[in-house]
Each structure stands twice: as C-alpha cells, then as structure tokens.
Amino acid sequence: MRRIYLDHNATSPLVAEAREAAERALGECFGNPSSVHWAGAEARALVEEARGRVARLLGIDPGTVVFTSSATESNNIVLRGAARASAREGGAIFTCATEHPSVLETLRDLDVRGVVLPVERDGRLDPACLERALEREPARLVSVMWANNETGVIQPIAELAAVAAARGVPFHTDAVQALGKVPLALGALPLDFASFSAHKLGGPKGSGALYARPGAPLVPLLRGGGQERGRRAGTENVPGIAGFGGACAFAARDLQARAERLRALVRRLWEGIEAKIAEAHCHSALDTGLPHTLNVSFAGADAEALVTALDLEGIAAATGAACHSGSTEPSHVLLAMGVPPALGATAVRFSLGPHTAADEIDALLDVLPALVARVRGADARR
Ligand SMILES: Cc1ncc(COP(=O)(O)O)c(C=O)c1O
Predict the structure, then answer these.
(1) 187: which residues sit within 8 A by CB, 6+ positions away?
(2) Does ligand 1 lie within 6 Å of residue 150's CB atom?
(3) How far is the CA of 353 from the centre of ligand 1 (A)?
(4) What is the whole-number distance in angstroms between the Cα of residue 151 and the centre of ligand 1?
(5) Most CB contacts within 10 A, which of 46, 232, 304, 380?
(6) Would the CB of 174 count as within 6 Å of ligand 1?
C-alpha cells in the first residue's frame, strides 16, 4: 500500500543534511565539545557550525543561540526564569489561549499570576487587546506563539512585540512551527526570546534551541558544568545539535519557493475538499497562515474515526492537538476561536512537508469523500 505522510507538524522525517551531520557526530566526531584535545575540538567545531547555520536561518548573531533538549525546555527556561527573575517586583505573565501546552501547562504550574488573553475568531491575538491588558496590570513577561501548530494561524508578532517593548516588558515567542516554513528575520524585531525545535523541520527529535537577545533577562534552568556559556548546563547533544544545523541549512535553501509550492498544494487540497464534500469548514488562513497546514472540520464525522480510516488507507493525518494525539479532549485552540465543541471534535489537520507531491494530495482527495461519508454514516447511527 502507498504510504502518504501528512503530519509534518507533529514531526518531519530527517532531511539528508541533518542525517549526514548527525552521523558525523555519532561517529568520527565523538568527542566532548568541552575537552581541549583534538577529539573535543572536532565535536566543538560541529556544534559551532550548527550554531552558525541556525543563526543564519534566523538572521541573528550565532552567540544568541542556546542549544536545549527541546522547545518544551526552551519554553520552560523562559517562563520559569521570568517567574524567578522578577519575583520581588511581581507582575503577571501574559500569554494567549491558543498556545502549546508547553507554555500553558508551565504557566499553570508556576506560583505567579498568569493572564491568558482571548483570540479573535481568526485565531489571532489583537495587539490592542494586549495593550489594554498591559495597561491594567504590571507584567513580567509576554509569551505569544509565532504560528499555531493546529491551524497554522500566524500571530501579528511584530506588532505584539512592539506593544510589549513600548512598556519595557520582555517578549517571548514559541516559533517552533514557523522555523524553516516562513522567513523569520528575528534580529529586526524587538524580541527577547524565541523557542525552536529541530524535529519540526527535518532535524532529530530531542534537539531544541532558544534565542536570547543580548542583554535579555535569561535565568538558566539547568545549572552545572557551565556549557552554552553558562546559559544551559549539560554536555551538549552533539548529534542532535549537528542535525539541527543540517536541517536549518536545508530549510534556508529555496525557502520562499518551497513555501509557495506548498501553499498552492494546500489550496488544491482545500478546493478539492470544498468541491467534493459538503459541510467542510476550514480553520486555517489559506493566504496568510503557515503555507503547509490545513485544518478542516467535516461536520458530523468524528475526527478520531476519520484519522483511523485514513490510516487504514496509508495516509497519516492528525486530529486536533496532534502533539498529543490520542486524547479525546476538544481542541483548546478551536474552542478559543469560537468553534462549537461538536464541530471542533471533527477537525482534522493535514500538514505537508518539503517532499509532499501533488499526486499525494490527489490520492488523498480520491479516498476522502467516501471515508467522510462512511464515518458520518456510522456517527449518525450511534
Ligand atoms: C508550537 C509548539 N511548541 C512547542 C512544541 C514542543 O516541541 P518539542 O517537541 O521540541 O518539545 C511543539 C510540538 O511538539 C509545538 O508545536
């Protein structure tokens, strides 16, 4: 059976550059980057090459890149650091309702006040809403994701960061899903922190990064041997880091052309769905969102059942919040956008990758109408 993978927002297969770089670190460059001898120097060179590659994709100085174990860790460093850094000064941490659990759950776990701002029906946080909230009470941090993992909706990050900067409040963005998909040019924005994860763009799992602007109030979460210039202790995951660098080098090449190709494929998919399937609702922004993500509700068709039916055809897609697929909770992202719970429970996410081909989209469109009809029929009989 032909296998078609349309779940790149959950994870994306290793690209060749990432594999080659990681294999060098697993083999010949086995040293500890902190060692002064030749073996250490070879591993150090791989780490620094990767730092340069990540920085180039982001338009920032390599010295501002801190390697971590994941974006979950990067988000924890920033939120937990903010809670401790300004403990005496007080102030709330502001975020928005559609964030990833690694932000929302961390905030819930902290002993500081968290303010979760609502989003508009299009999934975006209105900068005026943030401005009003910051007028009402003091803040120690604002954290808003660049692009949503479920819908691909892109936040007005430049405007939001400017609102925070105008009040001298540090600003963090979880940019996991945007990296390598849309140009980021972080250096030009009034941002303090940004989180990234290698495995969403063809790097290895368990490899992340944190951008910290020079002078940003970074409080290390892990202390120990002083690695990463004291910002994140622990012997570096050299294969993970090298693989991350390889993935960024791949992503930087033809980024714009790839994005345009994927946007056209997503449009082809949505237009095919609209033409063939009644009562389909699009939750993504086809022109302004991430180019490779389409989130659609097929009213009356349970998403879990539909994704299982697709899987039986060899097609991998995701329900609701795919980072933890398998949960039957309605998606907090769609609920926050005002989608009724029953419709939210029918949402399926298709996320394309750099090698997704037009005939894979057509193969999906060939089987989808019958599968939706079958699942709808089964649901109606229940
Ligand atoms: C928006 C977003 N933030 C954070 C994460 C967590 O990344 P990681 O798997 O590196 O912990 C994910 C995906 O899992 C994500 O989609």
Answers:
(1) 58, 59, 60, 61
(2) no
(3) 17
(4) 14
(5) 232
(6) yes
Ligand 1 contact via 176 beta carbon (within 6 Å): yes
* Digit-coded pLDDT (tens) for 27-86: 999 999 999 999 999 999 999 999 999 999 999 999 999 999 999 999 999 999 999 876
State the distance between the two ends of the chain, measured CA to CA, in whole angstroms: 31
Q: Pocket of ligand 1, candidates 200, 331, 333: which has the most ligand atoms within 8 Å of its Cβ, to mutate?
A: 200
The answer to whether the CB of 232 falls within 8 A of the CB of 217 is no
**Whole-model pTM above 0.70?**
yes
Which residue in 222, 220, 197, 159 sits closest to 323, CA to CA?
Answer: 197
**Residue 89: per-residue pLDDT:** 72
Number of H helices, E strands in the chain: 12, 13
- Residue 1: what pLDDT? 87
User: Which pLDDT value is given to residue 323?
Assistant: 43
Strand partners, 141: 93
- Sequence-separated (6 or more) residues with CB below 8 Å from residue 250: 15, 16, 17, 18, 180, 201, 202, 354
Å from CA of 105 to ligand 1 middle: 13
- What residues contact residue 363 under an 8 Å CB cut-off, 6+ apart? 2, 4, 315
Which residues, including other chains, have CB under 8 Å from residue 205's CB and lie 6 or more apart?
11, 198, 199
**pLDDT tens-place string over residues 129-158:** 999 999 999 999 999 999 999 999 999 999
Is-catalytic flag, 323?
yes
Q: Which residue type occupies 302?
A: D
CA atoms of 101 and 103, how far apart (whole Å):
5
Predicted local confidence at residue 85, as pLDDT: 79
